[in-house]
Design a protein that fits this description.
Largest sheet: 8 strands, mixed
CATH topology of the largest domain: BirA Bifunctional Protein, domain 2
CATH architecture of the largest domain: 2-Layer Sandwich
Number of domains: 2
Order of helices and strands: EEHHEEHEEHEHEEEHEEEHEHEHEHEEH
Structural class: alpha+beta
Number of strands: 18
Strand content: 25-35%
CATH class of the largest domain: Alpha Beta
Length: 357
């Protein structure tokens, strides 16, 4: 289990000089100006990694403490060129689902396999079955000796093969501190989006003086795995909406079902059904407006609500609901308990199991 943290937004720029970020990314960093009472320059963090290493360094660590996992939904800022900004797809301030796993070299394969399988499983939950993986090796502009890069690339390659994944080589596109796997999602209309990454880093922990005490009582630099499943949360949300054309799976929809009355005679029944479904943990609303039911159906269909539950006099008398989907499919009538069980199965399986009407 990972420790969830919130690392500082502002850090002394000297930290970023030590890690190598200042040399590689200075043009993309937001820096403060010196003050008369403080001549230090601070940087708004463009990434969370150095802060997590500082947290790791707090207190003595033993090999028995590893793997030690730190996670953060961290807000980062990067000075993207104005011409590159594009809705939620490319912004200057965004949230990263960053995780860093501090391990021994002998734990690289096991942890990389586990992270890779977790990432792919989560993508399937969100409806992305077509995922391409790229192996990005050392870039021309990098830190660390070639011997360290040889070890890092060999370790990540071995872990990739152990995970049983297929990948292509993305020559020279690794991070400046280590090789990485890039997870590329293909959406419903065939567009590719690079989202998650898994990186093996043998450089940054050493540069910042991180160490643990090994089984021989010696100081040893940990290996650091960088993992982000979504990359930018804002960008992933945009990709998700595009992939589903706004029709989010029921488990993700803000409103999962709406109970619609035909006349005010069904109001009490609609309220009762809505309250019952809410008490079971479903996100359900009712629409009791004095409008034609066709108008209501159209409005909530345009809102992409997964299920529309209509109750007229006949349904009230029989304790039933006329169930239809946002695609217009009529699922017939069913009692509220049957509908609740159907929805529960769909949500629990993340949409992988949907009952037919």
């Amino acid at each position: 289990m990972a420790i969830e943290v919130n690392s500082p937004q502002l850090m002394d720029s000297q930290l970023w000089v030590t890690t190598g970020h200042m040399q590689a990314y200075r043009d993309m960093m937001f820096l403060t100006q010196k003050r008369e009472d403080d001549d230090r320059v601070f940087a708004i963090k463009p990434m969370n990694c150095p802060g997590h290493i500082q947290i790791f360094k707090n207190g003595l660590k033993s090999y028995r403490d590893l793997p030690l996992k730190i996670a953060e939904f961290g807000k980062v800022h990067r000075f993207e060129p104005s011409g590159a900004l594009h809705g939620l797809m490319r912004v200057r301030a965004f949230t990263q689902d960053d995780g860093h796993c501090f391990i021994t070299e002998g734990q690289i394969t096991e942890e990389c396999v586990a992270i890779t399988r977790l990432i792919l499983d989560i993508y399937r939950d969100f409806g992305f079955e077509d995922v391409r993986i790229k192996f990005a090796d050392r870039p021309a502009k990098r830190v660390g000796a070639d011997a360290i890069w040889d070890r890092a690339e060999a370790a990540l390659m071995a872990a990739s093969r152990a995970a049983g994944i297929e990948f292509t080589l993305n020559k020279g596109e690794g991070a400046f501190y280590g090789p990485k796997l890039e997870f590329v999602l293909r959406d419903a209309i065939g567009r590719d989006w690079q989202c998650g990454t898994l990186q093996v880093d043998l450089n940054m922990p050493e540069r910042l003086g991180a160490y643990y005490i090994d089984e021989h009582s010696s100081k040893t630099t940990p290996v650091m795995l960088h993992r982000a499943m979504f990359g930018s949360l804002e960008r992933f949300f945009a990709i998700l909406l595009e992939h589903h054309a706004g029709k989010l799976p029921a488990w993700l929809s803000p409103v999962q079902a709406v109970v619609l009355s035909i006349t005010d005679r069904q109001d009490a029944y609609c309220k009762k059904v809505t309250e019952s479904l809410k008490n079971q943990g479903f996100r359900v609303e009712h629409d009791l407006r004095n409008e034609k039911v066709g108008f209501k159906i159209r409005e909530h269909t345009l809102k992409r609500v997964p299920y529309l539950l209509v109750a007229g006099d006949k349904e009230v008398a029989a304790n039933l609901l006329a169930v239809r989907t946002r695609s217009g499919k009529d699922l017939g009538t069913m009692d509220p308990e049957t509908f609740a069980e159907r929805l529960r199965i769909e949500l629990t399986s993340r949409g992988r199991q949907v009952l037919e009407g």
